[in-house]
Amino acid sequence: MGNANVSNVTIRPEEAAFFSDLARDWWNPQGKMASLHQVNPVRMEFIRDAIDAHWDGDPRSVKPLTGKTALDIGCGAGLVCEPLARLGAEVTGVDASAENVSVAATHAEAGGLDIRYMAGEVAGLDIGTFDLVTSVEVIEHVADKRAFLADVAARLAPGGLLVMSTPNRTVQSRLLLVGAAEAVGYMPKGTHHWSDFITPEEFEELLGEVGLEVIDRRGIAYSIGKGLHLSDSEALNYILSARHKD
What is the pTM of this model? Predict the structure, then answer.
């Protein structure tokens, strides 16, 4: 992300700048990024289940990613990188914003976690391939989604696991994620542009074009009783796992 490879930049500069402005507040659970702190345990529940299913692991294992490498693309200040490291992975985080990477590295060091953070466009970084690749709430900020997914697929090792999440492009998401959520301050104004959202069907088709197939897909929904949770409803947001086609 960023301008590490000018010939193949997929993250819009204004998007990187927007999140850079929020970097210092990223780890404040009551701050401007509070919504991310609330959804992160739901994402991690899906990611953990996907890890166990993909590698036939023991759900009781504390470190199911021991001996495996993980890459989080669009890592922000490290909200996914840190739990992946605690699950035993050797983690690399890449983000378009140097400010995000700086905050992420400082927070990881303070927590005693050895995570490699890099600023730039993933296509322009010589970082090899990874057993697990994650990219959550990133593709909706990307100008050329197919080019971005080709870069993502190129980072996934043979036999590897990919997990991505994004808002759906529905009437409900336009009203709630863009309109209401920003109006009441649940998300910073300008976080989302509804026309850039992608439907699950479009997402799966693009993944297929870059040689990946979806293994599992769940909605992320909200209710008063449960709060944010994994759901059969994909009206607002969804998360999926994928792998290289056989």
Answer: 0.86
